[in-house]
Design goal:
- The protein is an alpha/beta fold and about 325 residues long.
- Helices cover about 45% and strands about 15% of the residues.
- It contains twelve helices and 13 strands.
- The strands form three sheets. The chain has a six-stranded mixed beta sheet with strand order 4-8-7-6-1-5, sandwiched between helices.
- The N terminus is likely disordered.
- The structure holds pyridoxal-5'-phosphate.
- Pyridoxal-5'-phosphate (PLP) binds next to helix 3.
- The site of pyridoxal-5'-phosphate has 12 residues, from helix 3.
């Protein structure tokens, strides 16, 4: 089995992520949280849908809202059936277990899932290769919707040549919990048994599926906006022409911006962007705390999502400018 699992990012969620948090300068700071697209919180429409969801026991297949989500997602992904599971990690695990049922089965992992997701021909080629060796292809489609929006193709087009797919609902789509496994009917029947064995069977899960349905319905509006904000930020940062931080706006395809950092450790840059000094308040009249993660030894990663507005993006850029000036020659 061939599998496009992404390099597992060691995410270190340590900073408090209140929208407003106290700052050393004694005024509340406006927090722009760019650590990950998993930090979104359900808004009023999503919470209303959750409160009003019609539910049943999903372990008996009796939750109408989960069934609606599974059917809508199957259409979207162009697969026979999908199964709602708690996390994308479990979705991937179920697929691996479903494909590699014989002891001694081999699992080949790609170094970068981007190969499969972003290069349209890639999956088809891997599938040709895979078939000739009797292998199956699983697509880790955690951010499949972002890829589809960026490529301007229906998600089903990306999934077309895969034997199974996972799909995360709690990243850019903004649901609090959930992922889906997609594939042929018999594969999903097996996936259902595996989910149960792994302790992933849920009861009145319609409360969660309702949030995911809202996320899916809003994706076409939200994701292009996230991508646009990310691109605008990259262009703005490039325009600062800093010797410390550089970025290639042309490389920003989706909601992520990788910023190359030279001359100081990325962790220190993150610390400076997060903290608020009285100097900042005095000079800019603002207190903005930008949260993000060091990505490699020489880069930081910023991720856009539905809770980051165009104005937040501008505030993050101005904070960045302030920090770079402080560090500047
Ligand atoms: C986030 C992610 C996962 C894990 O998803 P969870 O829902 O956090 O378990 C797996 N694969 C990829 C590519 C991801 O981005």
């Amino acid at each position: 089995m061939l599998c496009g699992l992404a390099r597992a990012a060691a995410l270190r969620f340590r900073a408090p992520c209140a929208r407003w948090s106290g700052s050393r300068a004694g005024v509340p700071a406006h927090v722009v949280d760019l650590r990950s697209d998993t930090v979104t919180r359900p808004g009023p429409a999503m919470r209303r849908a959750m409160a009003e969801a019609v539910v049943g026991d999903d372990d008996f297949g009796e939750d109408p809202t989960v069934r609606e989500l599974q059917e809508k997602a199957a259409q979207l992904l162009g697969v026979e059936q999908t199964l709602f599971v708690p996390t994308n990690t479990m979705a991937n695990l179920i697929c691996v277990m479903g494909h590699c049922r014989r002891r001694g089965s081999q699992l080949l992992l790609g170094q970068e899932c981007h190969l499969h997701v972003y290069e349209q021909g890639g999956v088809a080629q891997v599938h040709l290769l895979a078939q000739s060796h009797g292998a199956r292809v699983h697509l880790d489609g955690a951010r499949l919707m972002n890829a589809a929006v960026a490529l301007r193709v229906p998600p089903a087009r990306i999934v077309e040549h895969c034997d199974s797919v996972s799909f995360c609902l709690s990243k850019g789509l903004g649901a609090p919990v959930g992922a889906l496994v997609g594939g042929p009917k018999d594969f999903i029947e097996e996936a259902w048994r595996l989910r149960k064995a792994l302790g992933g069977g849920m009861r009145q899960a319609g409360v969660l599926a309702a949030a995911a349905l809202v996320g899916l319905a809003e994706a076409e509006e939200v994701l292009p906006r996230d991508h646009e904000n990310a691109r605008r930020f990259a262009k703005g940062l490039q325009a600062l022409a800093s010797p410390i931080c550089s970025v290639d706006p042309a490389a920003v395809e989706t909601n992520m911006v990788l910023v190359k950092v030279e001359g100081l450790p990325p962790a220190e840059l993150c610390q400076r962007l997060q903290s608020v000094s009285s100097d900042e308040v005095a000079r800019t009249g603002r207190a903005v705390s930008v949260l993000l993660f060091p990505w490699t030894e020489q880069s930081v990663r910023a991720v856009w999502h539905r809770d980051i507005s165009a104005q937040d993006t501008e505030l993050a850029l101005r904070k960045w400018e302030f920090v770079l000036r402080q560090l500047g020659p």
